[in-house]
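Q: Convert this sequence to structure tokens.
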Amino acid sequence: MRLIGDVGRDSVMSLSGKTVMITGAGGGIGRAVASAFARERADIFATDVKEETARQTGKEVVAVGGNCVADRLDVRSETDIQRSVGRCLEALGKVDILVNCAGILTILPFDKITQELWDGTMEVNARGTFQTCKAVASHMVTRGGGGKIVNVSSIAGKNGGAYYTHYCASKFAVIGITKSLALELAPHGINVNAVCPGDVQTEMLEYEFRTHSRIRGIPEEELRKQWAARVPLGRLALPEDVADIIVFLASRKADYMTGQSLNVSGGMVMF
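A:
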């Protein structure tokens, strides 16, 4: 699906002429990332395991004046990743920027985490991130000229959490992948960084509220107040808060940053 519109001229960090591939572009953060890059005049290749949500993101990109190609991509499949990268190259000619937003979450006590749940979480969050980096970085190296990769980890990739053992393990892995690839790809002028969001107002957070409300016997609205109160800046994050940092990391303003894992948590995590 190709969606085309005129891009505005009020950009402060223009990425005109750049192509960005986004996984998990149908989710809350992924949608915000696509719109943020479109405002900076980048061409968008928006992918999601649910094709309809990728298409919806494409429509939102057009609404802010951007260009978008939408595609279904299951990051659990290396074959599907290769196919999707190939389609991006065919449709838009290159990939300058990769943003790995695809991720899943389940909340369970450690002794209830089955091998299937563990493997499924790792397949998407860790292996999916790595395999997509591998496919896109290979293109970037062959093409020359450098590139930017931004992986979405979490503050759960820096702190453990009760009922989040498998999720934390996968997000710690994303940070390790980011640091390792940053070292290997630096000679090719490819920057690899990660963002670590805190509590972001998305469908995933709504799932967390429902689950913790059931586990703890606390009304969801009370949980919202408690979680917002534990943030030094006093509020839960918006997807746009995360998207803006990702755009910064993909811009020339972050050319001398690589291997970093930036917290976007309102001060909840400071290391």
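The beta strands are 2-3, 19-23, 43-48, 67-72, 97-100, 147-152, 190-197, 261-264.
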